[in-house]
Predict the structure.
Amino acid sequence: MVADPPLPESSAGARRRARLLAITLESRAPDRAAAWYRQALGLSDDDPLLTAGGVELRFTLGTTEAPNTVEPARIVLNFHVDDIRAAEARLVALEAVWVRELEHTSWGIIGTVLDFDGNCVQIVEPAPDSPPCLQRKEEP
Amino acid sequence: MATPTLGSILLGTSDPERLRDWYAAALAPGDGGGVFTEVTPTMFAGTFGDTSLLIDGRSDVAGTNPEPGRVVLNFHVDDARAVAEHLDSLRVTWLVELEEREGGLFGTLVDPDGNYVQIIQLGQSPS
C-alpha cells in the first residue's frame, strides 16, 4: 500500500476532496489478473505495487460464482497512453478480447478490451482538444 | 514510451444526475457541487486527486449493480473520522463502518447504484 502523497497547495474545496488512489478488483485468480495488467500496461515485475499514474491496482480473490463480470459497462478503467499503437500491440500479444477496436473519436483514439475477469479496460490516446478530464496526466 | 496512467474511471449508470450529486456531496464537501463538469448531457466528470471519475448515463446497466464487490473504489482522505461524520449526516449506507485496521482507518459505503466505495486514512492511530 502506498503512503498518501502530500496534497498540493490549492483551493479549500480541493483540499477537502477525497483522492481516488486505488482500485480493488475482485478476481477468480488475483495473481493472474495482476499479471494481465502488468503485461497489458507494460509495467515492470520489479515493483510489488502495481500502479498506473499514481493509482494502485489491487486484486482480491472473488467470492461470486460467475467467472466474468455480468455488467462490463458498469465500471470501465480508462488508461491514458502516449503511444496507442504500442499499447495496442501489447494487448494483441496478450490475446486480449477486443470489445471495440481502435477508433478515432473527437476525444482521441480509443480502444476497449476485456481484462482477465471480463471487466472493460479502455486505452485512450487523448486528442489535444479533448476535455481536461480526458487529457493524459504525467506520472506524479 | 511513458507508463500508462489510470486517467479516469467510468461509472455506467441508469441515473447519472443522482450519482453525480451523491459523489459531489459525499466526497467533495464544501465544493458546492462544482467538482463535476458536464462533458455531455448524460456524462459528468469530476476530479478526485489526479484521477477523474466519469459518470455516464447508459441504458445497458441496471439500476443497481448486481455484483457490487467486483470493483471497489478506494478514496483516501485526510481525516476519516470527520468524513465519516459528514457521510452520516448525509445518511449514506455503510457496508462496513469506519474501523481501525492495520495501517489506518477504513470504512466502506455503498453509493446509490450499489457500488462499493472505501474511505481510507493511512497511518492514523485510533483516538
User: Anything to note?
Assistant: Strands of chain A lie at 19-27, 51-52, 55-61, 75-80, 97-105, 108-114, 120-126.
